[in-house]
Design a protein that fits this description.
The structure holds two protein chains of two kinds. Chain A is mainly β. Chain A has no helices and eleven strands. In chain A, strands 2, 4, 5, 6, 9, 10 and 11 form a seven-stranded mixed β-sheet that branches. The radius of gyration of chain B is 13 Å and the shape is globular. Chain B has no helices and eleven strands. In chain B, strand 9 and strand 10 form a beta hairpin. The N and C termini of chain B lie far apart (about 40 Å). The model of chain B has no long low-confidence stretch (mean pLDDT about 95).
């Protein structure tokens, strides 16, 4: 079974502060993703990466940076956290990025910005 | 871009009955339609998918139907059990494209 672990699982941050969400996968997958889930809504793609040291913008990248220092690790960085970034963030990985490839999700990181 | 809509935000059924969750999509080029399940406090996990070259797929108690003409697909869960209670997300993507577009989710409650 694929394993994607996220940390922290929960965080309260102050407006304007810096937040780093970390993701580690042991699946040997090339692709990693960061999604955002707002209450009552589906997931929206923030950033993704298909190789170490390279990241790509997703559908809602504004206000977020990403870092992929190794195949196993993918971080999401909020340099200046804002109230609107309160959400649950999910990391996922997949073998390739093509259609039909199953996403394996972590358990989520709940971020509250106050 | 693609927009996926889930018609039921909540669905309540009695244990043993069938549950049906309906989704529509907008992009005729979409060709892959996975379904994911999210249990309370957990991440999503894959349950079943269908590709555009077929109109029906079954895996045990799960059946997915695809109507390309109407741009509609649905998940049927037969003989529901309490452990089927969760949020179900439909999604759509195109061939050779890593973008997967999710619906807003349907909360399924299976009552004993």
């Amino acid at each position: 079974e694929a394993a994607v672990t996220q940390s922290p699982r929960s965080k309260v941050a102050v407006t304007g502060g810096k937040v780093t969400l970390s993701c580690h996968q042991t699946n040997n997958h090339d692709y990693m993703y960061w999604y955002r889930q707002d209450t009552g809504h589906g997931l929206r793609l923030i950033h993704y990466s298909y190789v170490a040291d390279s990241t790509e913008k997703g559908d809602i990248p504004d206000g977020y940076k990403a870092s992929r220092p190794s195949q196993e690790n993918f971080s999401l960085i909020l340099e200046l956290a804002s109230l609107s970034q309160t959400a649950v963030y999910f990391c996922a990985s997949s073998w390739t990025g093509g259609s039909g490839n199953t996403l394996y999700f972590g358990e989520g990181s709940r971020l509250i910005v106050v | 871009g693609e927009k996926v809509e889930q018609h039921e935000s909540t669905l309540s059924v009695r244990e043993g009955d069938s549950a049906v969750i309906n989704c529509t999509y907008t992009d005729t080029a979409s060709s892959y339609f996975p379904w994911y399940k999210q249990e309370a406090g957990k991440g999503l996990h894959f349950v079943i998918d269908i590709r555009s070259n077929v109109d029906r797929k079954q895996s045990q108690r799960l059946i997915v139907l695809l109507d390309k003409k109407a741009k509609r697909f649905s998940l049927h869960i037969t003989a529901t059990q309490p452990e089927d209670s969760a949020i179900y997300f439909c999604a759509a993507s195109k061939d050779n494209n890593n973008r997967i577009f999710f619906g807003d989710g349907t909360q399924l409650v299976v009552k004993p």
